[in-house]
Design goal:
239 residues; alpha+beta; T-fold; 8-stranded antiparallel β-sheet; two-stranded antiparallel ribbon
C-alpha cells in the first residue's frame, strides 16, 4: 500500500530543481540541475525490467536472505546488487533501493552536473557543494527534528542509506530506530544498513553494530540510533 512520504516536503536542495517520479512500486524524489522526469522514468523502467526479468529466471534473487551467485551475463544492476549483498552478508534485495537510486542517478548525471535521489530513505548523491541530510528516527524519538549529518564530498558519488526496525516498512530483524551507513557505493550502503540494523536489538548492541559496519569493505561511516542513545564511526559529521 502506498503511503505519502510527507518528509519530502522539507527536501529542497539549494540550487537544484526538485521533482518526483513514480513507476509501479518505485517512487523517487529527485533533485538535479533541471527537470529530468522523462529521462528518470525511462531509466527506472529499464532497471526495473532488468531486476524483474532476472527474478523470473532465478526467484532466489528475490527471496534469499543470504548472498547468492548470479550468472556472468547478468545485467549490471544485478551484478552490483549481488556484490553488495556478498560484502554485507545479506540477500540481494536488501540493496535494491540503493542500487536503483544509484543506477538511475548515474544516468541522470549525463544531463546534470548534480543529482540527488531519495528512494524510501535511501539516498544517492553527487553534489558539488556540501549537503545536510536529516536523520529520521521515528515520531516519538527524542532526536526527532534534531538530528542530521553533513555530507561533504564534492564531485563524488555518495550513498547514504538507512535501515530501521521501528520505522521502516522494510524487513529488519533488529530494533534500531535508525542504522545509517555511508559508502561511495549506494547499493552497498543499503545492504550494509540492513546488516547493521539486524544486529542492533538493544542499546548495548550499538558498539557491536559499529564493529560490524567497520568490518565491511567499502563502508565509510555509520550512525546508529536506538531510543535515547546513539553511536557513530567514520565519516559522520553531526550537525
Amino acid at each position: 500500500m502506498y503511503k505519502p512520504r510527507n518528509y519530502r516536503r522539507s527536501m529542497a536542495p539549494e540550487g537544484l530543481v526538485s521533482f518526483e517520479v513514480m513507476e509501479a512500486e518505485t517512487d523517487l524524489a529527485i533533485s538535479a540541475d533541471k527537470d529530468l522526469s522523462s529521462v528518470a522514468r525511462q531509466a527506472i523502467t529499464n532497471y526495473r525490467r532488468d531486476i524483474e526479468g532476472y527474478i523470473k529466471k532465478d526467484p532466489r534473487f528475490f527471496s534469499s536472505l543470504e548472498p547468492i551467485d548470479v550468472v556472468g551475463d547478468s545485467p549490471l544492476i544485478i551484478k552490483a546488487m549481488a556484490e553488495a549483498s556478498r560484502k554485507a552478508g545479506v540477500g540481494p534485495m536488501a540493496s535494491v533501493a540503493g542500487a536503483v537510486a544509484e543506477f538511475v542517478g548515474t544516468e541522470l548525471l549525463k544531463y546534470s552536473k548534480q543529482v540527488i535521489i531519495e528512494n524510501g530513505g535511501d539516498i544517492f548523491m553527487h553534489s558539488l557543494t556540501p549537503r545536510i541530510v536529516g536523520v529520521y528516527a521515528g515520531e516519538y524519538s527524542p532526536f526527532k527534528n534534531k538530528l542530521a549529518i553533513r555530507v561533504d564530498s564534492p564531485g563524488k558519488n555518495i550513498g547514504v542509506c538507512t535501515s530501521s526496525g521501528t520505522v521502516s516498512h522494510s524487513l529488519s530483524f533488529g530494533k534500531s530506530d535508525a542504522a545509517l551507513l555511508i559508502s561511495s557505493d549506494a547499493a552497498l550502503a543499503d545492504a550494509a544498513a540492513t546488516t547493521v540494523g539486524n544486529i542492533v536489538k538493544n542499546k548495548a548492541d550499538i558498539e557491536k553494530g559499529i564493529d560490524v559496519a567497520r568490518s565491511i569493505p567499502g563502508i565509510d561511516g555509520v550512525l546508529i540510533v536506538i531510543g535515547d542513545k546513539m553511536g557513530s564511526w567514520g565519516k559522520i559529521e553531526l550537525v
